[in-house]
């Protein structure tokens, strides 16, 4: 009936505005967090699979908001991208990482990897901001690694991206491809890029060594990396069985809950001083 139709319309309408309200609250809280610099960075250890020793740390965004509670980066990052706030979020993460590395200057430091959104790499200001941040905190570029995803490597921008990645590498900053194997970058293009490391995506590691397909994919990635002179780090290593399989097949490094989740800086520091083991 007509009446029913109208009610249905109202229902959708109020659902829409509820969604808008949620989005507006998130936006407001994210602005608040950026202004008050309350976004946090946690650090997940990367280890040498053969020896179990620390090789690096990955910086991961954490947001505990007093109104919204904990909001996961899988939610924050796409939101920041939609709202045009990703440069500000990325700049705050990088600044906190550099400040932390400076505070750790009396320790035996390892490189810290920072995740980048493709939108950050498309900004003209990115490289200048990166230089400024490193200089401000007195951080040697060798202590920074950037993790980019295959979505950064879209063919339309291939030449500009190649030039940018070369400029980054020329500074001594390390470059890795995150979630490797889940995107669609062509191997011909990949070969031209000045990369250091492929990060084998967790989805391929998860069912090792029981899934025959995942075994084949992992071995193919390891073979490809060896051929291109790249390192491999396996993500999401959760069991000794996975770690053993990967180590046996010359995967250099691993990262995952088997070793450690992402930790607040003071806990991550225990890994730098060797107290964690
Ligand atoms: P990612 O870069 O692939 O990071 C790995 C994610 O897997 C992290 O989730 C980490 O906590 C989680 N993880 C690590 N080891 C294990 C494991 O053994 N098992 C399982 N199940 N999970 C594991 P997190 O911190 O929630 O981050 C999710 C994603 O958000 C990241 O995926 C990254 O794409 C993005 N992200 C996080 N921080 C930043 C940032 O500062 N900037 C940008 N652009 N993206 C970020
Ligand atoms: Ca990453
Ligand atoms: Ca990843
Ligand atoms: Ca991922």
Architecture overview:
The chain is α/β, with parallel strands linked by helices and 277 residues long. Helices cover 49% and strands 18% of the residues. It has an eight-stranded mixed beta barrel with strand order 1-2-4-5-6-7-8-9, surrounded by five helices. It is globular and about 55 Å long. The termini are far apart. One calcium ion is lined by residues 58, 115, 147, 178. Residues 23-276 form the EAL domain. This is diguanylate cyclase. It comes from Gallaecimonas xiamenensis 3-C-1.
Observed structural traits:
single chain; 277 residues; alpha/beta; eight-stranded mixed barrel; 11 helices; globular; binds ligand C2E; binds calcium ion; diguanylate cyclase
Give a concise summary:
The chain has 277 residues and is α/β, with parallel strands linked by helices. It has eleven helices and nine strands. Strand 8, helix 10 and strand 9 (253-254) form a beta-alpha-beta unit.
Termini gap? 70 Å
How much of the polypeptide forms β-strand, as a percent range?
A: 15-25%
Output the strand order for the largest sheet.
1-2-4-5-6-7-8-9
Summarize the main sheet.
Answer: 8 strands, mixed, barrel
DSSP helix fraction = 40-55%
What structural category do the secondary elements indicate?
alpha/beta
What is the approximate shape? globular
Ions and ligands: ligand C2E, calcium ion
| H and E string | HEEEHHEHHEHEHEHHEHEH
Continuous helix count: 11
**Mean pLDDT over the residues:** 92
Count of beta strands: 9
- Rg calculated over all Cα atoms: 21 Å
Unreliable residue runs: none
Domain EAL: 23-276
Protein name: diguanylate cyclase
């Amino acid at each position: 009936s007509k009446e029913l139709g109208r009610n249905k319309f109202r229902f959708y309408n109020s659902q829409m505005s509820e969604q808008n309200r949620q989005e507006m609250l998130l936006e407001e809280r994210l602005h608040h967090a950026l202004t008050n610099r309350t976004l946090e960075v946690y650090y997940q250890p990367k280890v040498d699979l053969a020896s179990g020793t620390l090789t690096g740390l990955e910086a991961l965004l954490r947001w505990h908001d007093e109104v919204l509670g904990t909001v996961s980066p899988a939610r924050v990052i796409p939101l920041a991208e939609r709202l045009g706030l990703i440069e500000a979020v990325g700049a705050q993460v990088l600044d906190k990482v550099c400040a932390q590395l400076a505070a750790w200057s009396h320790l035996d430091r390892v490189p810290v990897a920072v995740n980048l959104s493709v939108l950050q790499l498309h900004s003209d200001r990115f490289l200048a901001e990166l230089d400024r941040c490193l200089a401000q905190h007195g951080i040697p570029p060798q202590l920074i690694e950037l993790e980019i995803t295959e979505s950064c490597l879209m063919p339309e921008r291939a030449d500009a991206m190649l030039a940018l990645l070369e400029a980054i590498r020329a500074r001594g900053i390390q470059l890795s491809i995150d979630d490797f194997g889940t995107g669609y970058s062509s191997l011909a293009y990949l070969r031209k890029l000045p990369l250091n490391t492929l990060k084998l995506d967790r989805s391929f590691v998860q069912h090792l060594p029981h899934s025959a397909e995942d075994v084949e994919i992992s071995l193919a990635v390891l073979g490809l990396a060896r051929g291109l002179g790249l390192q491999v780090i396996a993500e999401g290593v959760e069991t000794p069985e996975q770690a053993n399989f990967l180590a046996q097949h010359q995967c250099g490094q691993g990262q995952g809950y088997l070793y450690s989740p992402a930790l607040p800086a003071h806990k991550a520091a225990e890994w730098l001083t060797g107290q964690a083991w």
